Amino acid sequence: MTRPPRIAMLGGTFDPVHNGHLRSAVELRDALGLDRVHMIPAPQPPLRDTPQVSPQQRLELLQMAIGDTPGLEADARELERDGPSYSVDTLRSLRHEYGEQARLVMAIGWDAFLRLDQWRKPEQLFAFAHLVVIARPGHAEAPSTPLMELLGEREVDSVSRLMASPHGQVLRVTLPSAMAISATHIRQSLEQGKSIRFLVPETVERTILREGLYQRWQSAY
Ligand SMILES: Nc1ncnc2c1ncn2[C@@H]1O[C@H](COP(=O)(O)OP(=O)(O)OP(=O)(O)O)[C@@H](O)[C@H]1O
Ligand SMILES: O=C(O)c1ccc[n+]([C@@H]2O[C@H](COP(=O)([O-])O)[C@@H](O)[C@H]2O)c1
Hints:
The protein is α/β, with parallel strands linked by helices.
């Protein structure tokens, strides 16, 4: 019998993409034995202000960051929708693409997980995908009661248990090279004229500096 595909969505504002995202995607691919990790920029992230840097520019930085990394894909599907970038809509589309037996995972960092109960139709996410929560240095706050209620009995303690079914369960993971890198810190560094070397891939750094992105003198697009 052929093994069902193992697919993950790692959505983000990617404002800009950084090595914390990229290394997490690679280590998640290896830890879960994933066939593909769809890295999906959100044009209008629902719980924050729409970024100044356009969705197309954020996508292009993501594409150059990923390059030819096996199993990682810059996925533009949210750019084709209007309105807030709800993950439930993206997961519906991935489920449709890969079929009902695929093991579909929505991967989010601990900070994003803490607000999951404020997302659109959070319980419906589990009808499409598993949830994998990635530990993130500097984010250790405990989940709220509504969030714990939302999780219910879904938590499992191993990859093999998670992959035994197509969707509906939750796994917390700590990846080997957890990095305390954030896009906020990168934007602040650029605004202050400080170096972002080694926080993002070199091609991304070069493009940001050349285009004047995130720098004080850049006018809003
Ligand atoms: N260093 C990191 N390690 C693990 N997960 C991360 C890391 N940075 C971001 N993530 C996760 O990746 C997803 C997309 O993150 P996002 O694009 O918002 O980046 P960010 O660095 O958190 O941005 P910002 O600082 O602007 O909030 C979220 O689920 C987030 O928790
Ligand atoms: O679906 C929602 O309601 C929802 C609410 C907040 C965030 N998300 C998604 O979570 C991902 C990370 O968001 P953010 O704001 O932490 O960059 C990104 O793909 C967002 O579209 C989704």
